[in-house]
Write a structure and sequence with these properties.
The structure is a single chain. The chain has 334 residues and is of the alpha/beta class. It has 11 helices and 9 strands. The strands form 2 sheets. The protein has a 7-stranded parallel β-sheet. Strands 7-9 form a two-stranded antiparallel sheet. Strand 1, helix 2 and strand 2 form a beta-alpha-beta unit. Helix 8 packs parallel to helix 10 and helix 10 crosses helix 11. The longest helix has 16 residues. The relative contact order is 0.13.
Amino acid sequence: METLDLTELARPPYYKPFGRLMKHWFGSPAYKITIDAGFTCPNIDGTRSTGGCTFCDNTSFSPALRGHVSRISGQIEAGRKFYADKFKADKFLAYFQTFTNTYAPVEKLKALFDDALAQDGIVGMSVGTRPDCIDAEKLRLLQSYADGSAEVWQRKLAEGRTSIARPFIAIEYGMQTMHDVTAARVNRAHTHAETVAAVELTRLHGPDLHLCLHLIAGLPGEDAAMIGASISECARLAPDSVKFHHCYIYESTVMAGQYRAGEFEVIDLETHVQLAADCIEQMPPWCCIQRLVGEITDPGVIAPQWGKTKLQIYAMISDELKRRGTHQASRWQG
């Protein structure tokens, strides 16, 4: 783990950005290349539910509409070219983001993850998944990458295609909320107890994995007190990084229909800034802040319409921390 100078947290932006960790690991930025490996979810295919989360884009559930899914090597090559052209980047993380990326037998996962890590320029991997789709065997597979012992990484080292002894390997769990009543309302089809169990299992079988938790502020039916309770619970679980999203409404979702029917209201910008600052204050000092706002610029987003860029919202959150005279870990209870 990176040695942290706590005085850094008392300076702008008053928290530890994920990019700072990447520079510590690799000496320069590492950019995430998003990968669609063709997975589905247990709340889509009927294993636990159907229809998916109410905030997910329903049109993407159709196999016919996902016929574009290409080989991982091709997706990585396209992403690598984009970031190289735009930022002159040469280090990348393969980000398995779309749907549930451990929802398959371990043999299939190994083939997909090996393929990604074997590509030139790939220095690590981040795997987004649900807490009910992980087990000891899958975590041991991920741990073999994280400690550098996996055959694919040893071969890459032997061929001189990397000088990094072990790649950066992260697992990202969609905690979203600690409240089971909310999880049921948005059709997550798993409980918070399963999230806690996944965190504990990860620490047991994947000690070198970077553990990230996702939270969504403003889910239907939740008030500031409920969101605050989820923030405190996330802090208690002490993740290595956190993604704090606002609940945005995307067209073609069940949630969009509920919103148009007046079943709930979206969170306003001022409230989100306050909650994001609360979240930062409670996170452990080593925790990286990967995200502080959800999607706002995609033309498919129908609400909220805040009229701000992501950079402007990040600046507002830092300004709020400065106004309070606080910073990350100011209210951490560890």
